[in-house]
Amino acid sequence: MEKIRLGKTGMMVTRLGFGGIPIQRLNEDDAVKVVRRCLDLGINYLDTANGYTTSEERIGKAVKGRRKDVFIATKSFPGTPEIIEKNLELSLKRLDTDYIDLYQFHGINDTKTMDRILDPESGLYNVFEKAKKEGKIRHIGVTSHQMDTAKALVRTGRFETLMFPFNFITSEPADELLPLCRQNDVGFIVMKPLAGGMLDNARIAFKYLLQFKDVVTIPGIEKISEIEEIAGYYEGPQRITAADRREMQRMRDKLGTRFCRRCDYCQPCQQGIAISMVMTFPTFVKRLPPDWYLEGGFIADNMAKAATCVQCGECEARCPFQLPIREMIAENCKLYEEIKAAHQKKAS
Ligand code: SF4
Ligand code: SF4
Fold first, then answer.
1. CB-hemisphere CA count at 13 Å for 83?
2. pLDDT (tens digit, 9 = 90+) per residue, 40-89?
3. Pocket around ligand 1 at a 6 A CB cut-off
4. Ligand 2: does its nearest atom lie under 6 Å from the Cβ of 276?
5. In the structure, what pLDDT confidence band is assigned to residue 119 with cuts at 50, 70 and 90?
């Protein structure tokens, strides 16, 4: 499988990587088999996170005996220095390794948080630097969903990679963000190549991304058949035909008026609702086990808050994509309640 240099990390990674969220839904044996099949197909870049429950441990088991052949990327939310230190030690233990190739600040979506992690007084970035000096991590990266913040993160020169959503619906990174990464030699890692499960034509979605020869794309993989199919796209014809363009346009038209980019321009909300999370709730349903979003935690708390929306419409006035936010929040709250009721019925 073709490899690229991942920015200033110098890591030679396969253009197709493995996204470790969906293996949480499998039993351990099946999860290990899926990861091993990826390795057998030649994939050498595996992405996971401290927050993805069993994912790190399963990846650790799958790469046993092959550790030196793969690059493992994981992440930690930027709580406090102590939390990051604890998360890092836990990741090393779960992955059963003594180093992590790429350690990333997870989900930096506003410049206030960016400033906080870079402020020497917070000690957050220092934890990463210290871990790098000690050889526990080899490179420092960052993940974001917010375009302006992502550009600012790249410009700081403090991160070797950026992970950002990119697909033919959320195609904005092609305009400025990706060229900016190239200018700064920051490796670009594509998350959400299928728009969080909203794009059902994987062939077209990957054909679009295959135009960009210097990015690594990490689809979340749950089944061996999925990764075999996707790996096939990397070997097959890559030229986008007129029929492909028509199909892309059809899907853009279908999703365009209701597709949330998670840019957060609609904030702030007077009720404190994390609007983009509610707007993309169906993608969590597709990707996560129900316990994750029903039994406490950020998603459950935020869905409860969403039910308090007073329909003021201020968010809609700020959304650059003119999305019917109030209508979609109401729909997704209804979906959440339906899933909750079905889950409770099953459990009783
Ligand atoms: S319409 Fe609802 S979600 Fe939007 S700003 Fe008002 S309260 Fe918040
Ligand atoms: S609702 Fe609109 S402004 Fe808010 S995150 Fe989604 S696309 Fe951005």
1. 12
2. 999 999 999 998 889 999 999 999 999 999 999 999 999 999 999 999 99
3. 269-271, 273, 275, 309-315, 325-326, 329
4. yes
5. very high
CA gap 27, 40 in Å, rounded: 20
Whose Cα sits closest to atom 7 in ligand 1?
309
**Nearest CA residue ID for atom 8, ligand 1:** 269
Cβ–ligand 2 contact at 328 (below 6 Å): no
Beta strands in 215-309 (DSSP E): 215-217
Q: Under a CB-based contact definition with an 8 Å cutoff, are residues 153 and 105 in contact?
A: no
In 3D space, the residue among 73, 95, 252, 230 whose CA is nearest the CA of residue 163 turns out to be 73
- Residue 46: φ, ψ to 5°: -120, 125
Longest CA–CA separation in the chain, Å: 57
Specify the amino acid at residue 139. Answer: H
Count other Cβ atoms within 10 Å, centred on residue 177: 21
Tell me the two tokens of residue 297: 């935690």
161 and 184 in contact (C-beta within 8 Å)? no
Residue 226 CA to residue 197 CA, distance in Å, equals 13
CA gap 310, 264 in Å, rounded? 19
pTM value is: 0.87
Pair 191, 218: CB distance under 8 Å = yes
